[in-house]
Specification:
Strands 10, 11, 12, 13, 14, 15, 16, 17 and 18 form a nine-stranded mixed β-sheet that branches. This protein has an eight-stranded mixed β-sheet with strand order 3-4-5-2-6-7-1-8, with helices on both faces. Strands 9-19-20 form a three-stranded antiparallel β-sheet. About 40% of the residues lie in helices and about 20% in strands. The protein is built from 17 helices and 22 strands.
Length: about 525
């Protein structure tokens, strides 16, 4: 199949749009699509913005509007120079043309688009100076927009805002960023925008560092389908004179995806190529494990026939004999706490993961509770007991996906927890920070083979860390589906939220700790640890 639009045809459309959008009678303030507006709004309040984007969505066109508004302001209004850098002279020319269109649309006085030769001076070897063609628009404010087609060393002598477009394809992005980030010292800005170019590319590593919390930068992600939902094809029809319809948009989408073929995930869906395999290595997980209890409770089918009061009393006895001593022994009443729970019932396990934040900001999971074939009412009974006992709770997240919705809703009402839907977007946002904690030695979890296997079950699927559909047999007889990994991720995310402490409640007075070390996992041998040999 031939390409639905060649690069040349696309560039012609983009060039025509510079005038067509103004001629269409749309108010200037409404010209930007939703994702373009969000990018511009972020730049009013943030120093560094990194954007993962699809091709052909016009994000750079939206940045051109911001460049004009920034460079046309007087210094007292925080105006300054804007420098645009890309790997292609064609792109720099297109950016300047878009800026000129926006200047006319905003009725801002600007000089004619001009060309100049920019000296790329190597201070260590001046004889190696190169001249690079640049494009420039000067404004009455005294500031200018300067667009360059490569990464000059002379960027270090500039001030203002620098936009690095298609950053994954420029030469030595790391070195360019070193120079660009110097702009921040004088109140400037850095904007890094790109489609992906592989998982090992410096741009993808930068994005992952942000998602892991290692870089305090603003982050955006706009894929092709999101851009379509926010009006991309409708805008294309407007500027090209075509009639829009849902059917025409669907056909155009299919043609674009067919054109990119196997590269569509990277080019359109913001998924870096070669992104498959194990998410967390066994060696790294084991290094973050310490000797801590994993309480396992598995119930026989006969338990479900008991009266409700009997069920409640039996679980209360298990809590008193095993859970309370563990909490008394492992929970520090002076530390902030969080909580995560992955809910299962028929096929999968339910895992309850308390977490505490040490003064060094290292997170520690002091113990885990694993429930197999436990009725929802008793799951809620155990979770409520733990939640009430956790001191200085800053957050608690419950898996509300599928069968977990009822428990999550009840706990949200009674205990102020947060209901989380486990989606692809949740994996994309929440898993990288967890990996960063394992890499940086800022998390400790119980040493347990099943917990290790659950974390190892996380795989890279189309560039996103998630759990595949595969299930394995649990030690207690049920099935595992990475349940501990989800619970730990929910708990870790709960301590990263912006909410303050919900309550302060110290650990209650419990029975003395059982001195038998084997009793930590007493639930292995029966339907609950207190009475292994009891029959119902």
């Amino acid at each position: 199949m031939s390409a639905p639009l060649s690069r040349e045809e696309w560039l012609k459309i983009r060039a025509a749009s510079q005038e067509a959008v103004l001629a269409a009678g749309i108010p200037v303030n409404d010209l930007l699509l939703g994702y373009q507006k969000r990018g511009v709004d972020l730049l009013e309040t943030t120093a560094v913005l990194v954007v993962e984007k699809s091709r052909r969505i016009g994000f750079t066109w939206g940045l051109a509007s911001y460049a004009v508004l920034r460079a046309s302001r007087m210094r007292a209004a925080r105006g300054y120079d804007v420098m645009y850098i890309s790997y292609s002279q064609e792109m720099t020319r297109e950016f300047i043309d878009a800026c000129a269109m926006w200047a006319r649309g905003f009725a801002i006085a600007a000089g004619e688009t001009g060309e100049l030769m920019f000296d790329d001076v190597d201070p260590e070897n001046p004889s190696e100076t190169r001249q690079i063609k640049a494009f420039r628009i000067q404004f009455a404010s005294g500031f200018e927009i300067l667009a360059l087609s490569s990464a000059p060393r002379s960027l270090r002598g500039k001030q203002g805002c620098v936009i690095i477009d298609e950053a994954a394809f420029v030469d030595s992005l790391a070195e360019l960023l070193k120079a660009a980030l110097a702009f921040l010292m004088w109140g400037g800005q850095v904007v890094v925008v790109s489609t992906h170019n592989g998982t090992t590319n410096a741009f993808n590593e930068l994005c992952q560092d942000i998602l892991k919390g290692r870089k305090p930068y603003a982050h955006m992600r706009v894929d092709f389908d999101q851009a379509l939902q926010e009006g991309l094809y409708q805008r294309i029809c407007l500027v090209t004179g075509k009639e829009w319809s849902p059917e025409a948009e669907a056909q155009w989408r299919d043609e674009i995806r067919a054109f990119y073929g196997d590269a569509a995930e990277e080019e359109l869906d913001c998924v870096p190529a070669q992104g498959s395999g194990v998410f967390l290595s066994a060696a790294m997980i084991e290094e973050r494990m310490f000797d801590a209890p994993v309480l396992r409770l598995a119930l026989p089918p006969s338990f479900f026939q008991l009266p409700a009061t009997k069920k409640e009393s039996e679980i209360a006895a298990w809590i008193a004999d095993y859970l309370d001593p563990v909490m008394k022994q492992t929970i520090d009443p002076n530390l902030q706490s969080g909580f995560g729970m992955d809910v299962g019932r028929y096929r999968d396990l339910s895992i309850l993961a308390p977490i505490q934040m040490m003064r060094t900001l290292r997170r520690v999971v002091p113990f885990l509770v694993e429930l197999d074939r436990v009725p929802f009412a008793q799951q809620k009974q155990i979770a409520t007991h733990i939640l009430k006992a956790l001191p200085r709770r800053v957050g608690a997240r419950i898996d509300g996906t599928g069968i977990g919705a009822g428990i999550a809703e009840d706990l949200e009402t009674a205990q102020g927890t947060e209901t989380i839907k486990i989606t692809t977007e949740w994996y994309r946002v929440e898993l990288p920070p967890l990996k960063g904690a394992f890499e940086d030695d800022t998390i400790l979890i119980p040493r347990d083979a099943e917990v290790l296997a659950d974390l190892r079950a996380l795989k890279m699927v189309r560039g996103v860390p998630m759990l595949p559909a595969l299930r394995v047999k649990a030690e207690t007889g049920g099935a595992r589906h990475g349940d501990a990994a989800i619970a730990i991720a929910l708990a870790y995310g709960a301590t990263r939220g912006e909410s303050g402490p919900l309550e302060y409640q110290g650990v209650g007075k419990n029975e003395p700790v059982n001195d038998d070390p084997d009793e930590d996992n007493a639930g292995h041998a029966g339907f609950y640890g207190r009475r292994r040999d009891a029959a119902y």
